[in-house]
């Protein structure tokens, strides 16, 4: 019985020690996560038809937006506004980069992405790929995207996409640095991009 009590007390002390360490050093774990690049490795296709990987999100601070070309309002508005913010914060185009990743690869081929994005901006690069690879990226970057039939009675007919409407901000190492929400105050959005540039 005495041995049993000793074993119990040792177990209690070990658990208390572990909990104490977690309490005393909570930032260490979060710092490790923050040091890792956001998202997952990928090999997709840029609007010019060239392969593009996650390494494109390194070297410069990045604005990253997920959407689709058939989007009626959120995507064209966001791309237009983002282009304006980029021009204001980085007029020479050497401090910031931006990418628009489709969540609708079945319709958004590289050619269609090129025509769509080029019509709005020379500063933003469209990215497409196979449905399987795009699905991996959507999941890896924690983006919400769901196909929604236009007519519920015809689930295999025309559709739209529900998706995350925020712009992700990544530092030059590809680490998550914040978001710009859809409908964000323009001055706030510009300030966020300025802070992103200053952070590097």
Automatic annotation (TrEMBL):
From the UniProt record, which GO molecular function terms apply? metal ion binding
Q: Which keywords does this Swiss-Prot/TrEMBL entry list?
A: Copper, Disulfide bond, Metal-binding
Give the protein name, as stated in the record: Copper chaperone SCO1/SenC family protein
CDD domains per the UniProt record, alphabetical: SCO
User: From what superkingdom does this record's organism come?
Assistant: Bacteria
A UniProt-annotated Pfam family: SCO1-SenC
Disulphide connectivity of cysteines: 71-75
* Family the UniProt entry places it in: Belongs to the SCO1/2 family.
Q: Where does Cu cation bind?
A: 71, 75, 163
| Signal peptide from the UniProt entry | none
